[in-house]
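By convention, the C-alpha cell line describes the chain's fold. To illustrate:
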Amino acid sequence: MTNKLIVIAGPTGVGESTITKELIKRFPSFIRLVTATTRPPRPGEKEGVDYFFLSKAEFENKIKNGEILEYQNTRDGSYYGTLGKELKSKLEQGYNIIANYDIVGTRFFKEKYGSISIFVLPESLESLKKRHVDRNPNIDEKELTARLKYAEHEITKEAPFYDYQVVNKYGQLEIALEEIHQILKKEKIV
C-alpha cells in the first residue's frame, strides 16, 4: 500500500485540527503536514510543529524560487502555503499525510496528488458560534460575525467539492472520528 494524502478541512472552530491530532494518535502511519505562514505565532504555537513562521519577504522569495508548491494570501494579508521540501520529506518517510487546507490547497492536492478530502461540518452555525465563544469568551462581535459569515460560505459553496462530509457535533468528537475511520477503511488507507 502506498502512502496517501488526506485533506481534512472545515470552518474555523469546527474541530478539524482536533480530529487530525486524534487520528495521528490512533494511527502511527499518519503525520500532519506542517505548512508555512507569514502570520505571527499565537501563544503556545511552536515553529516547525504548528507552522513554519516566515516573514513576508522570505515567503515571497520561496514562491519565486519554486520552494512553495501552493499558497494563498488570506483576508488579513497573511500568506499560507506548502513547502515542497516538507511534503517530499514526509512522502519519502512513508507516512500517510493529513493536511488541513482551505479549498485552494484542497484543489491543488486533489489534482496533483489524488488526495482524499473530508470536509468537517458543524451541526449548525449556532453551534459553531457557541464553539467560538466558548473557546474565546472575549471574541470581538465583528470578528465573530465575519467568521460565521465565512463559515456559511464554506459550507454552502466549498463543502460540496470535497469527497466526504462529516458532521462533528459539539461535544461528540468520537462519533465524527468513527465516521472518518470508516471513510479511511473504505479508501483502504487504514
